[in-house]
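Subject: sequence -> structure tokens, single chain

Hey, anyone have a minute? Need the predicted structure for the following. Not urgent.
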Amino acid sequence: MENLSNYGIRNIEIGWDPNPEWSNLILEIKKKFKFINIGAASITSIKSLDSIRSLDLNYCMSPIFNKEIHIKAIKYNQLVIPGISNVENFKEAINLGYKIIKIFPASKLGINFINELHDLRKKDIFLIGAGGIKSKNLKKLLKSGYDGLVIGKELKNETPDKELEKWLKDF
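Reply:
Had a minute. Here:
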């Protein structure tokens, strides 16, 4: 975490885990890294949603659109950014009032999908691309219409590759 923060990364999501110790780990990380916005990834069930309520997380992400989860998250006043992979779910997320939407898996859906969403997109909708994003494609994806990008497996060792390191310095 410290290494990533030294590169200027300020939003880090950590995959949700049903292990009771996961919540303690998140609380420890939040305490130690107050300047990093910690979120939970992979919120895919009511159980996972319920378990994060006491953690006071600014955001969470879901790789899927599950209306039941999102309605309950809104009721709890917990931001769970919906993951969408089709136009119907995109429209549903907007109808629920979401202003931040994750396109997942962005690498498989491609730029044609983001272009398809442009006609439906309102100006105040922030689109995040996630899933299979490679650092060598950051500029191209941002130019194609994404407002933010999630890099996952490339950072598992907490060390950006040369492309990402250069991009972070230039950004």
